[in-house]
Write a structure and sequence with these properties.
116 residues; mainly beta; seven-stranded mixed sheet; four-stranded antiparallel sheet; 0% helix
């Protein structure tokens, strides 16, 4: 059985930082990463990383977010800095075989709220 366990969401002020974690069990996929969905908007890719270390970031988060993974622990991390109110969304962990296409396995989501 495949399970994705997410943690690290919360409420932060603009300019603050958060670190999201997602641990996968029951399966290993080449690509792990994060998508997000804000109210009234489409779900979008935030950042993904392959076993090779290749990464893909949304243009809006380049230079502010860093994705990494621990292959031994089958865990992916998203270090978010210089957070903006526009980053407010539910963040979903995702795993699959392709860098540019979402996989079939999703976490339940963790809320990130950036507000004063």
């Amino acid at each position: 059985q495949v399970q994705l366990v997410e943690s690290g969401g919360g409420l932060v002020q603009p300019g603050g930082s958060l670190r999201l974690s997602c641990s996968a069990s029951g399966v290993v996929f080449a690509v792990m990463g994060w998508y997000r969905q804000a109210p009234g908007k489409q779900r979008e890719l935030v950042a993904v990383i392959a076993l090779s270390g290749d990464t893909l970031y949304a243009e809006s988060v380049k230079g502010r977010f860093t994705i990494s993974r621990d292959n031994t622990k089958n865990t992916v991390y998203l270090q978010m800095t210089s957070l903006k109110p526009e980053d407010t969304a539910v963040y979903y962990c995702n795993i699959g075989p392709y860098l540019r296409t979402a996989g079939r396995h999703w976490g339940e989501g963790t809320q990130v709220t950036v507000s004063s």
